[in-house]
TrEMBL record:
InterPro entries: NTF2-like_dom_sf, SnoaL-like. It comes from Streptomyces machairae. SUPFAM superfamilies: NTF2-like (SSF54427). Residues 18-112 form the SnoaL-like domain. This is Nuclear transport factor 2 family protein.
Length: 119
């Protein structure tokens, strides 16, 4: 695949590390979710940046308890050799009650190096 071509993926064709993270995150299993990230990983969510596994662990723990919600994977796309987008629909007791979010993953060495979550 050329670097400038994107292709639609099905959830079952996402790399194992992404599905491991998504499954663990949905189950509020921070210990497993954190294993999907490089030590120097960065997560950007809701305008906040979390750098390194300790900051990401704290973000995961906080996000697991802040609101109650359901999350449903609605689409997946590979944008180049190391980048994937997983689109999710969330419903819950957070402001607005529903939202569609794009989880944009960048992989390095078989792990998540960067995750940007935005509408």
């Amino acid at each position: 695949m050329h670097d400038n071509q994107s292709r639609t993926s099905t959830p079952d064709t996402l790399p194992e590390v992404i599905t491991r993270y998504l499954t663990a995150h949905r189950a509020h299993d921070t210990a497993t979710a954190i294993t999907a990230f490089t030590r120097e990983a960065t997560v950007i969510d809701d305008g906040n940046t979390y750098e390194g596994t300790e900051a990401i662990r704290e973000w995961l723990d906080r996000s697991a308890t802040a609101f109650t919600y359901t999350i449903h994977l609605t689409g997946a796309q590979q944008t180049d050799a190391t980048r994937y987008i997983a689109t999710h629909h969330l419903e819950g007791n957070f402001p607005g009650g529903t939202i569609d979010l794009r989880y944009q993953f960048t992989l390095r060495g078989g792990l998540i190096e960067r995750l940007v979550i935005e509408p």
